[in-house]
Amino acid sequence: MTGRPCSIAASLQVVGDRWALVAVREVMLGNHRFRQIARNTGAPTDRLSARLKDLVAAGVLTRHPLPDDPRHDGYYLTDAGRDLVGVVRELLRWGDRWAVASPPMRMRHHDHELVPRTVCERCGENVDPRDVHPEVTVTGWTLAGPTD
């Protein structure tokens, strides 16, 4: 058996490597050059090169000429990469609370610290976690596991 069909597991196949999301973070912060990404992540260049290649192949990043140096390509977010902004923001928030003694960076919204909230796009209501429940959509599976 291969385990529960799961979008989290599938996502981690794409961005779950140690260097993947920190490379995406750097592109989100406006660092498009390989050397900038390598310096700011601390990743070994051979591992980073492979990871960036994988992220391009997965459609998270794209490569195209740098505006100020068209002889060299830079890395840029695709629509799929831009959809990771919220994931990276939540990992930052979690890390600030549980993984570091003092936050090394803050997210600002205009003149104040960003305090995001989740709103249901369908109905416009603020989302209370107590109102959210999983619904299994894969035949042969329940929340407890496989039915057979």
In words, what does this structure look like?
The protein has 148 residues and is α+β, with helices and mostly antiparallel strands. The chain has a domain at 9-106: Arc Repressor Mutant, subunit A, CATH 1.10.10.10. It is 39% helix and 16% strand. It has helices spanning 7-15, 20-28, 34-41, 45-57, 79-82, 85-98; strands at 61-66, 69-77, 108-109, 112-113, 141-142, 145-146. A two-stranded antiparallel sheet has the order 1-2. A two-stranded antiparallel sheet has the order 3-4. The chain has a two-stranded antiparallel ribbon with strand order 5-6. Strand 5 and strand 6 (145-146) form a beta hairpin. Helix 2 (20-28) packs across helix 3 (34-41). The longest helix has 14 residues, at 85-98. The model has no long low-confidence stretch (mean pLDDT 95).
Question: What's the helix and strand layout?
Answer:
Blueprint: H1 7-15, H2 20-28, H3 34-41, H4 45-57, E1 61-66, E2 69-77, H5 79-82, H6 85-98, E3 108-109, E4 112-113, E5 141-142, E6 145-146
Helix pairs in contact: 2-3
Sum this structure up briefly:
The chain has 148 residues and is α+β, with helices and mostly antiparallel strands. The chain contains 6 helices and 6 strands; from the N terminus they run H-H-H-H-E-E-H-H-E-E-E-E.
| β-sheet strand percentage | 15-25%
Shape: globular
CATH homologous superfamily descriptor of the domain at 9-106: Winged helix-like DNA-binding domain superfamily/Winged helix DNA-binding domain
Strand ordering within the main sheet: 1-2
CATH class of the domain at 9-106: Mainly Alpha
Gyration radius over CA: 19 Å
Give the number of DSSP strands: 6
Kindly report the CATH topology of the domain at 9-106. Arc Repressor Mutant, subunit A
How far apart, in Å, are the first and last alpha carbons? 11 Å
Structural class: alpha+beta
Low-confidence stretches: none
Which bin fits the share of residues in helices?
25-40%
Biggest sheet: strands, sense, closure? 2 strands, antiparallel
| Overall pLDDT | 95
The name of the CATH architecture of the domain at 9-106 is Orthogonal Bundle
Q: So how many helices?
A: 6
